[in-house]
Design a protein that fits this description.
Layout lengths: L1 H18 L9 E2 L2 E2 L14 E12 L2 E16 L12 E16 L5 E4 L2 E12 L4 E11 L12 E12 L16 E10 L1 E2 L5 E11 L1 H8 L11 E14 L8 E11 L3 E7 L1 E2 L10 E9 L1 H4 L10
Antiparallel strand pairs: 1-2, 3-4, 3-17, 4-5, 5-6, 5-7, 7-8, 8-9, 9-10, 9-11, 10-12, 12-13, 13-14, 14-15, 14-16, 15-17
Length: about 325
């Protein structure tokens, strides 16, 4: 397990070297803070991006699971200049659509593969305070069972509200002394509830919180300590992930709690991220003996500037 994680981190560094040393731009930027795209949590920042590849491998008590997730987010309403201190990019309202191809290899029974359910997430950043590096968004998560029933997590449509947040601490801490090195910290996360429609099972509640440290912010806004590329574009982070069926089959409603430490590289065009997920409570252990997650995120408004077009002004 440790060897696999080290190889995954090495992969991030290698591919980052192929991506060029362009500086971090205005994707997910609130004030002076640019937030990373979380690897598990939903992002509070509406933007144009393509999570082209999100591989995940999990070994559980029942067998092994491998998935290749993907999602596409498009800004529908652009952000006013006041939301990002006049910086180019970003949105006020967006919609995200995603799914995944899954391969299950159980210890007992035949393997199964196919696409799982589709997730649709319209999102509105209704409160942004750039000078405090703070944003709140609301969303409506819709989960539709459009894939292969053999690999889907559930077989009923789910829909419910979600609250998302992002907060940088660069403007809340002193610019001098030791405390200035805490200014690159940021948090972001979500809380949601998605009851099933047309079924008595899988009324789900979830919450995620991300603690991240922006080395680009350290170099550009605190003190340039001479970090070499690609280290100066890195974000060490840890996610805390909670998921629970409030109503569901007997024996399956215990909370699933994981901690997800990882490392991300972000430049002008892409984010590369890798993490390992660790079970926190005993109820989660059977479903997570070992997990590795990766992410390749393309900032498509830089790669194809024409996608900055929005249907609503």
């Amino acid at each position: 397990m440790r060897r696999t994680a080290l190889l995954a981190y090495a992969f991030v560094l290698t591919v980052a070297g192929l991506a060029g040393a362009a500086p971090v731009w205005a994707h997910g930027t609130v004030g002076d803070y640019t937030f990373l795209e979380p690897i598990v949590a939903d992002d509070a920042n509406p933007k144009n991006e393509f999570d082209i590849l999100r591989p995940q491998w999990t070994r559980s008590a029942d067998g092994r699971n491998f998935s290749l997730g993907f999602s596409f987010e498009k800004t529908l309403v652009p952000a006013p200049d006041s939301m990002s201190n006049g910086a180019k990019g970003g949105g006020l309202v967006s919609v995200e659509i995603g799914s995944a191809w899954v391969y299950n290899s159980p210890k007992a029974g035949a393997p199964a593969s196919g696409f799982n359910e589709m997730e649709i997430l319209p999102k509105w950043a209704f409160w942004t305070v750039p000078e405090r590096e703070f944003r709140l968004s609301i969303a409506a998560k819709l989960i539709v069972p459009t894939g292969n029933a053999a690999v889907e997590d559930q077989h009923h449509t789910q829909i419910g509200p979600e609250l998302l947040w992002a907060k940088g601490f660069g403007q809340d801490l002193p610019e001098k002394g030791f405390l200035k090195y805490f200014r690159p910290f940021g948090i972001q996360g979500d809380f949601g509830y998605t009851p099933a429609v047309g079924g008595a099972t899988l009324h789900e509640m979830f919450a995620d919180n991300v603690l991240e440290y922006s080395l680009p912010y350290l170099s550009n806004n605190v003190k340039d300590i001479g970090l070499p590329w690609p280290v100066r574009n890195m974000y060490p982070y840890v996610e805390f992930n909670y998921d629970q069926l409030i109503t569901g089959p007997s024996g399956q409603t215990f909370p699933q709690i994981n901690v997800t430490p990882g490392l991300a590289f972000m430049n002008y065009y892409i984010e590369l991220s890798v993490a390992t997920q660790l079970a926190v409570n005993q109820a989660t252990v059977p479903n997570n003996h070992a997990t590795i997650i990766g992410l390749l995120d393309l900032f498509i408004d830089d790669i194809v500037p024409q996608v900055n077009w929005t249907p609503f002004k």
